[in-house]
Amino acid sequence: MNAGDDRRGQGPAAGGAAAGIGEPRPAASERAELLVEMLPYISRWRGKVMVVKFGGSAMVDAALTDGFAADMVLLRQIGLAPVVVHGGGPQIGELMARLGKTSEFRDGLRVTDAETLDIARMVLVGKVNRDIVGAINVHGPLAVGISGEDGRVITATARNPELGFVGEVTDVNTDLLERLLAEGLIPVISTIGADTKGQAYNINADTVAGAVASALEAEKVVYLTDVAGLLDDVDDPGSLVRRTTADSLAARLRTGRVAGGMIPKIEACISAVRGGVNSAHLLDGRVRHVVLAELFTDEGVGTMITADRPAGRRGHQLNSP
Ligand code: ADP
Ligand code: MG
What we know:
Layout: H1 3-7, H2 28-45, E1 49-54, H3 57-60, H4 62-77, E2 81-86, H5 89-98, E3 105-106, E4 109-110, H6 114-137, E5 143-147, E6 154-158, E7 166-172, H7 175-182, E8 186-190, E9 192-194, E10 200-203, H8 205-215, E11 220-225, E12 243-245, H9 246-253, H10 262-274, E13 279-284, H11 290-295, E14 303-306
Parallel strand pairs: 1-2, 1-11, 2-8, 5-8, 7-10, 11-13, 12-14
Antiparallel strand pairs: 3-4, 6-7, 9-10, 13-14
Helix pairs in contact: 4-6, 5-6, 8-10, 9-10
Magnesium ion binds at residues 55, 261.
């Protein structure tokens, strides 16, 4: 009896099931129908680059990380080209605390001296990146972890001398990324950049994801976070903004209704769509397979941001060639 026979009637192995524990699984014919319904979306996204910023709760929950990892491999296997960019602020804070070093924040940014930079680089490149690469490669041997320093992907400069080695992106070199994508691989990028003299900087991952998406002329840049998307009122989870434009977001930034960690995301979304990325998305990383829900449904989920005014209903152009 081969493995296929073994599994007959039992569905995929635990963890691979689409339905939750105890939920009835759709009949085989319904599952086949569902797959056929995916066909127009698969044709639409084939060959398109999608940059995903992995962060928030999704990154610290093993089951959510596993779901995200499976999604990336699935997307790569059906012809999309995902690129993962990750942060790791909380993990850096944790190691700093264990080493007895206190972090000072100014305007939400960690003041980064040489020792803090070393810690950040060790945590991001040596730990968080490895964990994500490992999680993806459980589903298929496709993930390749790199630091923004590798192949000089990210050139950076000091954002503000008072903050030390906190960088801002001055250039994204897509050569290495394009070579990895051409090989069918999934680059996973830690957001450490270097200046032209080789000095390293720690850079906000939201900013890097937007800059990488623009440089790669990506179809989408997707932010996984720990809220449903952009909220009109941060205290009202029901006030999700489903679709908006760069202009309207720029106006919203001036109202103070966007705060904390949402600010660099919104700024990055604005510059990405103005820089040629077709759409930017803020998605709820607490929801398993949320990236697939965005890509494979007409109505989408979370917040979608485009450069121009919303043209009628939100939906993908399923009839385009
Ligand atoms: P991530 O790990 O995804 O970068 P952050 O904590 O940095 O998460 O950013 C997301 C947070 O931004 C939300 O949890 C929320 O507290 C805050 N926030 C501030 N303003 C808004 C807003 N208007 N809509 C949604 N979230 C907001
Ligand atoms: Mg953040």
